[in-house]
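Hello again, I could really use a second opinion on something today. My current little project is about how a certain protein chain folds up. You're getting the sequence in one-letter code plus the fold written as tokens. Here's the protein in full, and shout if anything looks odd to you:
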Amino acid sequence: MALKTRATEALGIEHPIVQAPMAGGPTTPELVAAVSNAGGLGSLGAAYLSPETLREQVKEIRDLTERPFGVNLFVPSPFEVEPERIQRANALLERYRKELGIEAPEELSSFAESFEDQLEVVLEERVPVFSFTFGSLEPELVARLKENGATVVGTATTVREGLRLEEDGVDMVVAQGSEAGGHRGTFLGDIRDALIGTMALVPQMVDTLSVPVLASGGIMDGRGLAAALVLGAEAAQMGTAFLACEESGAHSEFKRAVLEAAEDETAVTRAFSGRAARAIKNRFLVEVGEHEEELPPFPVQNALTKDVRAAAQRQDHAEFMSLWAGQAVRLSSPTNAAELVESVVEGAEAALRDLAPRPM
């Protein structure tokens, strides 16, 4: 049974599986290429990469695969740099720096990479698929990307956001359910009102939009892919499922946490980055989370906690890492990307066969 959809045709892939573009290290060029070589769409989470490193990693991916792949960036939003909030956040972080044996960094002069410079690399390298989250792109930018040969994919957590992205000209929309790990893509309205489950969000998005919808959140195996297709999605975007893969760049303690966590051990938090994101609970999430209302916004808080998170990785200290993962984390298993893609496809085909009506 061939699982062909408008999304597989537009993306130039064999299977309706998109590896979620997890920024911060998990999506190595090796993982991206392995997923693409297996017939899915590998995606590089490039939001924290300098333009130079982004270009290098795109070239690495191209050395490893001739198939389509994607690059994902965060759309910047206006933010305030409030010295008092930064001072309070640094005071909270002092105990963790002391425990890790590191000094507080000097005052930061910038908080994020230049989105404009990153996007120029995407255009210059003629990346086949460009996806984005945290907002919408000006229609002129969307048109420029499409004229350059890219398929453009936006991220929405509500139907209203999906409509906005469609109006701006995107080729397809990721419907990000509340189960999904990592940062929430909400950009219209209160983020607390946009925690809609995948099963509720996808059919409403499908019925409202004319462009293909990709389901994201809680999809870990063939059953999840089959359910997404039955709901009307034209592909599934999967992140947590790929975290424990051999090719993943997630820290070994991150992988261990993913393989040992249960479905009730994640929470949506602003503690690490200043923006709502779902992660496995640990000391940092719980303790700093008690002060969320005092924290600076993204990307300020993300920049302030960078030294703590980096030291935690060097010291194998999972209690201070940002362990982004979704609510279906219990279904994780150690494997490689090709085997995961194959098992998801086979599982979906079997599930859909079982649903097919049989002659009486």
